[in-house]
Amino acid sequence: MRISTVFLFALALASCGGKSSPQATSPAALPPSTVAPDASPPPAADPAPAPAATNDVAAQAALAEQYDKGKTLYVAKKCASCHGDHGEGNPKNPAVIGANALPQAAPKGAKLRKGVAFATAKDVLAFVKAKMPIKSPGTLSDDDAAAIVAWMLSESKVNIDKPLDATNAGAIPLR
Q: Distances from the Cα of 123 to the Cαs of 93, 115, 133, in angstroms?
């Protein structure tokens, strides 16, 4: 009779509203003697994928790094000697940065770009990779050409949301 009295007292105490409500306990957290023999622990949760914001931050950081590299290479590879310090061009060489830069159709009188259209970043990237720098065309690495083009396009307000390369450049319209 003593055990039933203790049990009733404990039950009454638990139901009279102590400071906090008891929390649910999973079978895995109970001592082995209180777990039913057929109860199994709950399945482990799958690891959550990385939040999109984390991926966006990483892509933006990589893109900023690519822009910085492109700006540095623009000077180091002497692009500025023909196209101007700010890509503004001059009477002999076209602008590569700004509202009038990189028109879709090659300008009249264009020698290097004759017949080459610039509709996407891929077109510009392929042209820069093959034809620039003028005194040693085709010597830019893929990464260097992509960095220079990414910087020029970003300065021209073309929307790029991750580092530019040959696999994604075709999806980036210039207009």
A: 18, 12, 16
User: What is the pLDDT at residue 25?
Assistant: 47
| 108's tokens | 């009249």
| Domain presence at residue 110 | yes
Report whether the peptide linkage leading into residue 107 is cis, meaning its omega lies within 30 degrees of zero.
no
How many domains is the chain partitioned into structurally? 1
Q: What is the mean pLDDT of residues 61-85?
A: 96
**Residue 161 within a domain:** yes
Is 36 part of any domain? no
Mean residue pLDDT across the chain: 81
For helices 52-76 and 142-155, give the axis angle rounded to 10 degrees: 100
What's the gap between Cα 125 and its chain centre? 19
In a domain, 73, yes or no: yes
